[in-house]
Amino acid sequence: MSCFCHSFTHHPDIKQNSQLVPSHCPYYPTAMAPTGAKKGLLERLDAGEVVIGDGGFVFALEKRGYVKAGPWTPEAAVEHPEAVRQLHREFLRAGANVMQTFTFYASDDKLENRGNYVAAKITGQKVNEAACDIAREVANEGDALVAGGVSQTPSYLSCKSESDVKAIFRKQLDVFFRKNVDFLIAEYFEHVEEAVWAVEVLKESGKPVAATLCIGPEGDMNGVSPGECAVRLAKAGASVVGVNCHFDPMTCVATVKLMKEGLAAANVKAYLMTQPLAYHTPDCGKQGFIDLPEFPFALEPRIVTRWDIHKYARAAYNLGVRYIGGCCGFEPYHTRAIAEELAPERGFLPEGSEKHGSWGSGLDMHTKPWVRARAICSAIMGSPGGTGGNWTPKGYGCSNQKQ
C-alpha cells in the first residue's frame, strides 16, 4: 500500500473543492479530477489511466428499501429515481468515473420472471430509459462516463435459442443507443457462451464493449477456464475483459491473473477489469457467495474494510488491471479507498477525500487520547489497526482520563 502524507487534509494550503496539497508531500496532486472535454473509455485506457467503476447498486438499494432481494430487479429507477440518483452521486463523489446504468437484470424476460410484475406494470423500456437518464445526469456533474449494462438472462438458462437470447439483449441495446451511452458492459454472466452472445450484440452499436463474468479460478459453469473465457470474450469484440461479483477482491484478482495469462498465450489483446464483491469469500465454491448460507441477508460479518480495498486496488494495479471497481457490497467508502490508494498514479483525489484523513488521520481530532493514538500509529506504520490487546486504551498506555 502507498504511504500517504499523514496530515494532508488538515494542511492550511488545502482549499475546498481543489485539494491543494503541501509541497513537501510527493504523493498528492495539486488538483481534483480533470476538467474539460471528456475522454472516452478507450482513450483513457490507451493513455494508461485508471478507470474507477462504481459499486453494488442492487445490494445497497435493497438495504435502503428500494430493491427486493430475490428478483434483484431495478424498477427503482422509475419508482424511486431520487434514491438511484443519490447513490450515483455518492459513488461519483467517492471517485468513480463510470456511472453504470442501473439496468442489472433489466431484460424483459427477467422483469416478468417468476411472478415479477415490472414488465407488465412499468415495462423494461421505461426502466432502461430512466436508468440511462439518471446515470447521464450524474455523470455530467463530473468527469464520468455512462456505461449501459446487460446481464445474464432467464432465457439462456431456459435453453432458448441464440437468436432468442440475442433479441433480449437488442431490446436493451436499442435504449442504450438512443440514449447515447458512452460504452457498454456485459456483466454478471456465469456462462461464457451467453456472454459472447451479449458482446456480439453490443458490438453492433459501434461503441466500446467491456465484458465480465461472475466466475472464480475454476472457470465458468461449464468448466471453461478463465483464460479461455477471456480469449473468447476478446475475440467476440470485447475491448475490456474481466470478472465481477460472486467472489472477494483478491480472489477476483487471482482470476483475472489467469485471464491475463490466457490472453498472452493466445496472443490476444484486451484491457483488464475487476469489479469484485466487498465480502470475504475464502470458503466459497465454484458459484461463489450465492451458495453461502448467509446469502443474502446475513453477509455483514464478511464485509471487507477500506484497508482491504487499498490492498485490492494496489494488487489489481500491479497486475496491470486499469479498470478497477466493485460489485455487491461495495459502498462509496470502498470506492474512495480505490481512488485514494491510486491517487499517486491518477494525479488527483476524489471530492469525498475532503472528509477523510489519510489512514484515519482525522482521528487526531478525537477527544479520547487512545483514539487519537490510533491515528498516530496508523500513520507511522503505514497500515491500519487490527484487533487485540495493543489496540485497547491499556495497550496504548493512555487510558488515564487526565491525559
TrEMBL record:
<feature type="binding site">
    <location>
        <position position="327"/>
    </location>
    <ligand>
        <name>Zn(2+)</name>
    </ligand>
</feature>
<protein>
    <recommendedName>
        <fullName>Betaine--homocysteine S-methyltransferase 1</fullName>
        <ecNumber>2.1.1.5</ecNumber>
    </recommendedName>
</protein>
<dbReference type="GO" id="GO:0047150">
    <property type="term" value="F:betaine-homocysteine S-methyltransferase activity"/>
</dbReference>
<feature type="binding site">
    <location>
        <position position="245"/>
    </location>
    <ligand>
        <name>Zn(2+)</name>
    </ligand>
</feature>
<dbReference type="GO" id="GO:0071267">
    <property type="term" value="P:L-methionine salvage"/>
</dbReference>
<comment type="pathway">
    <text>Amine and polyamine degradation; betaine degradation; sarcosine from betaine: step 1/2.</text>
</comment>
<keyword id="KW-0479">Metal-binding</keyword>
<comment type="function">
    <text>Involved in the regulation of homocysteine metabolism. Converts betaine and homocysteine to dimethylglycine and methionine, respectively. This reaction is also required for the irreversible oxidation of choline.</text>
</comment>
<dbReference type="InterPro" id="IPR051524">
    <property type="entry name" value="BHMT"/>
</dbReference>
<feature type="binding site">
    <location>
        <position position="328"/>
    </location>
    <ligand>
        <name>Zn(2+)</name>
    </ligand>
</feature>
<feature type="domain" description="Hcy-binding">
    <location>
        <begin position="39"/>
        <end position="342"/>
    </location>
</feature>
<keyword id="KW-0862">Zinc</keyword>
<dbReference type="InterPro" id="IPR003726">
    <property type="entry name" value="HCY_dom"/>
</dbReference>
<comment type="subunit">
    <text>Homotetramer.</text>
</comment>
<comment type="pathway">
    <text>Amino-acid biosynthesis; L-methionine biosynthesis via de novo pathway; L-methionine from L-homocysteine (BhmT route): step 1/1.</text>
</comment>
<dbReference type="InterPro" id="IPR036589">
    <property type="entry name" value="HCY_dom_sf"/>
</dbReference>
<dbReference type="GO" id="GO:0005829">
    <property type="term" value="C:cytosol"/>
</dbReference>
<dbReference type="GO" id="GO:0008270">
    <property type="term" value="F:zinc ion binding"/>
</dbReference>
<keyword id="KW-0808">Transferase</keyword>
<keyword id="KW-0489">Methyltransferase</keyword>
<dbReference type="GO" id="GO:0032259">
    <property type="term" value="P:methylation"/>
</dbReference>
<dbReference type="InterPro" id="IPR017226">
    <property type="entry name" value="BHMT-like"/>
</dbReference>
<dbReference type="Pfam" id="PF02574">
    <property type="entry name" value="S-methyl_trans"/>
</dbReference>
